[in-house]
């Protein structure tokens, strides 16, 4: 993968994070002001998280796919992945958690339950959301990492059998195949392990395998068509042009965007705005975990200061977006980036050998 491809893939991550933020701003604007910012509050998922699932599968297979079935030691790999998720997630959760005890009306009531808190911190599946609502997707990322680690830790034949069974049972669950699929819905863990989002992760893996031997000269065309595909799904969900809705449809435009991004030549000159989105992509995890906190605070401040009376609903929501992005980036620079770097340095540092012999 050349530098341009890495930049554009990271920029696509930034774009996905931005649209998650934008859709949540619209939903919160409707909650506080009954104003449908950009008319997107009723669309549902933006497809940003679905894109993250696909991108995770794509990058994992691109980087480590050749190690599947090699019986390698996976502890360093798994540790490296999990320290990117848990420590910063714990930090944000523990900052937010006291609010639910002080002002229970901010939540749904279950946030203060001991069982909910423990499972949320461990990112275990529950019948309801975690303490930090936006963190529901993190449980799936942990699942993907654990399964991929297992595939690398076993032989080739067992890996093929395990992956095939996982895919088969996931398909049975998605299509509610009698006996198998229908029963999984009643079990929290089975419903989680064989969730439909697995198909997005698997699609990313399959695309990475295909891209290893196939590139397209029409990379710009694929990126544009993929972006328009997201827009079409939003319009369809808004106006019911096609009377069928499924978030798995996001797989199609996501695949097109990733196919185009992974085919960009090294010598291509990237636009400046792509470089800015690349920086946003670096902070995408922080944006995912903290944007709702900032949006909520800014919305409450706008109500308290009667800001809407001066600049109107549209510009209030637009200001919230404009302020939330740099606030999230500041948290990324000062907290997440430093925390992850510090933990990695601590893990990689080896104690110096003593020059004094031990008697």
From TrEMBL:
GO terms for molecular function: acyltransferase activity. Pfam families: Acyl_transf_3 (PF01757). The chain crosses the membrane at residues 37-61, 82-103, 134-154, 161-182, 218-235, 247-264, 285-304, 310-335. It is found in: Membrane. Residues 12-332 form the Acyltransferase domain. Its main location: membrane. Keywords: Acyltransferase, Membrane, Transferase, Transmembrane, Transmembrane helix. Belongs to the acyltransferase 3 family. This is Acyltransferase. The lineage of its organism: Bacteria, Bacillati, Bacillota, Bacilli, Bacillales.
